[in-house]
TrEMBL record:
It comes from the Bacteria. The lineage of its organism: Bacteria, Pseudomonadati, Pseudomonadota, Alphaproteobacteria, Acetobacterales. This is RidA family protein. PANTHER family: ENDORIBONUCLEASE L-PSP_CHORISMATE MUTASE-LIKE DOMAIN-CONTAINING PROTEIN, ENDORIBONUCLEASE-RELATED. Residues 5-137 form the Endoribonuclease L-PSP/chorismate mutase-like domain. InterPro entries: Endoribo_LPSP/chorism_mut-like, RutC-like_sf.
Amino acid sequence: MSKIEARLAELGLTLPEAGAPIANYVPFTVSGKLIYVSGQVPRKDGAIHPVGHLGAGVSIEEAKAAAQQCFLSVLAHAKVAAGGDLDRIARVLRITGYVNSTPNFGDQPTVINGASDCAVAVFGEAGRHARSAVGVAALPGGAAVEVEAILELV
């Protein structure tokens, strides 16, 4: 078991299966030492969950947990990109989070902290990253949150 997988277990976190894309794209690309992971939406029991808008039914806490789940999906794809070895990930460089929001909702950064906090909990200082948290009118399948990332390989 890799150090990162041991840390995930210590945190009580489990990587989901690296799912197949739902459209005409690949789940990740690797260029040199960089892994670019496509946007991941939160899933529970095979379905997108939660769905809806922040500011109209989806709570901040529910969405933060969803952002964490999205980051775990990012890691599942990064593991495949790293040849099955999460210890090959040197650092998390950037996270971009999209929050399905009503026009008056302005707490997107708090929601995306679910992903950012997870990155730091798993990777320590190597998990500190640049970030954007963006409010959007809609996401695929009505997802409340979507997260993409750029990671660096050793």
